UniProtKB/TrEMBL annotation:
Organism this protein belongs to: Amycolatopsis keratiniphila
Record-linked Pfam families: APH
GO molecular function: transferase activity
The entry's keywords: Transferase
Boundaries of every Aminoglycoside phosphotransferase domain copy: 46-235
Protein name: Aminoglycoside phosphotransferase
Source species, domain of life: Bacteria
Length: 295
């Protein structure tokens, strides 16, 4: 278990699941060993765990590098499995090697070399992002797919909007700014055309270099909606670098997207980026650009 801050994992899990997450985390090593015996894989080191799961490297019985993902939230894992399986025909998500959603466990192929998109040569990214979106968006949404971009934004505005009254945030983002983002979002949702099955959370940290396979998307939150949405986090990541407007033009061209709509979506999510920036820190230049976009 190298290069992993267990205290940090415990804090993130507690923020998401409450105090009982600490007890669950204490049982994780023994649980992982039982799964290794059950599924016949070699358990490796703990690494790169997020806000809702703990992840171990492992090696499948045929030598395939893999990752074991454990979560205290079985229904969440069930949803993640469903989304990985629906995108499987694209070849642009990790393959599922084993799963027990009731136990809160699944084994996925490990993406190699696995470099995060934000650490790849910037000049290569727009074209590679376009290829990724083309593959993902070519997947036909299953009939009756229950998750939509509208629902995703309703949840996000409700959850993140509770923070607008916090003093440090209220000093930079007022109720009028938040209301303006909601109104802009509604206008874009009401004018969606040619909707596709979106990854739904496609930021630079959720896209890995898969070598000859191209870029691989992890942790999908699949929903049906405007194809521009799967490029907006990448575009807004240009704040403090080449600038959001400049990146938007390049990405829209490379991905075959409507540049005006993509830029409009960047103005919707800008205050959310600003709140994250105010919480976790970062370059003031980027924050100024988020606030200007949100105005």
């Amino acid at each position: 278990m190298t290069d992993v801050d267990l205290e940090d994992i415990s804090t993130r899990l507690a923020d998401r699941f409450g105090a009982e997450a600490e007890g669950w985390l204490a049982g994780v090593p023994a649980f992982a060993e039982r799964l290794a015996a059950r599924w016949d894989f070699a358990l490796g080191e703990l690494f790169d765990s997020g806000a809702s799961s703990v992840v171990f490297r492992c090696r499948w019985s045929d030598g395939t590098p893999a990752v074991l993902k454990l979560s205290p939230d079985g229904p969440l894992l069930t949803k993640q499995l469903e989304m990985l399986r629906v995108f499987a025909p694209s070849g642009r998500v990790p393959g599922v090697l084993a799963a027990d959603a009731d136990a809160g466990a699944m084994v996925l192929e490990e993406i190699r070399p696995g470099t995060e998109a934000e650490n790849l040569p910037p000049s290569t990214l727009p074209g590679r992002w376009g290829e990724l979106l083309a593959a993902l968006h070519a997947v036909t949404p299953p009939e009756g797919w229950p998750w939509t971009l509208r629902g995703r934004f309703e949840e996000s505005f409700d959850r993140i909007g509770r923070r607008v009254t916090e003093p440090a945030i209220a000093a930079r983002i007022g109720p009028a700014t938040w209301r303006r983002a909601i109104d802009r979002c509604e206008r874009l949702l009401d004018t969606q055309a040619g909707v596709v099955l979106l990854h739904g959370d496609l930021h630079l940290g959720n896209v890995l270099d898969g070598g000859p396979r191209g870029l691989i998307a992890i942790d999908p939150k699949a929903c049906v909606g405007d194809p521009c949405f799967d490029a907006v986090d990448y575009v807004v990541g240009g704040a403090g670098h080449e600038g959001v407007e400049a990146r938007c033009q390049v990405v829209a061209t490379a991905c075959g997207l409507d540049g005006d709509r993509l830029y409009a979506w960047s103005r919707v999510v800008a205050p959310m980026f600003a709140i994250s920036h105010l919480t976790y820190g970062g370059a003031e230049q980027a924050l100024d650009e988020y606030l200007a976009l949100a105005s």
